[in-house]
Amino acid sequence: MAIAFCACGAARADDCATPVRIEAPLDEPLRSLERVTDYQMMLESCTRDDTAILAIRDMKVDGEELLLTVNPETLQTRLERAACWTCREAGPDAWKSRYIRAVEEFGAATGKKLPPGASWLENAGLTHARDNRGVFVTGDLCPSHKPLERRFLQNLETQDAKIALSVTGLWVTQHGDDFRWLRKEKAEKRLDILWTNHSFTHPFRPSLPDGDTFILTKGLDPEDEIVNVERLLIANGETPSVFFRYPGLVSNSAWATRLRAAHLIPLGADSWLALGEKPGPGGVILVHPNGNEPAGIAAFERLNHSGAVPRPFRPLMEAP
Distance between terminal CA atoms of the chain? Predict the structure, then answer.
């Protein structure tokens, strides 16, 4: 991307001081990801006045050039106007940041030990915080014919809980009403949601071994699986985070390399509740609020009611 400079004049200064908001009214149909064009992966250091950020995506939304940016220490993502920043190829300081260190460290985490000869990885990535405090509640929204478990999420609202929701593109396009409901809960500050990428199609054939299904299904376009979820979220007024959860927690070394190139942190799970795993202090909890795994939702509610879920419920960005 070419170096960008904030244009001079009061009007441009006012534009730069105003947060970017992508218009996507909650009472209107979903917007197509095609609204977001010229979408490119990148890693550039950008400055404006005394503020420094990293830019990881360049795009146009409704014709305006925008950047998806990351605070290199807090991991918070934002959309910014490209014309308001001076950007250059990221230098050594970026690679020393908390963000890039997390991309590299958890991209190299291979997960569960598998039998010799296994062609895939299981539960690779971030599963646990270093400080063994509280838990990180995460929910996967894989493609499903069932409605969203709204009651589970409303219960979290009463406990001031944070949740990272891993969305697939197909779930969003097939559950427009549920997605709009989530957006409204978030906008009205009842539910603290971080959007995590869970691939666009999330294919799964139970008759095949793990090494031949999920994200390892032959014929998938890896870049489309990553960027089209981001484009769909942005087109509908939301901001993707820097986390990616592999469908079924299944991946391989090639996918680990792809995520590092995309500057994303792979997200695993310390406890997948539907499998009978128990949450431990500092762990990442996995449930499925998409209706496909009621046993996991029931287990969370039972464990939470009995005091067996460590507190507090923490935002995922504190985990790496």
Answer: 29
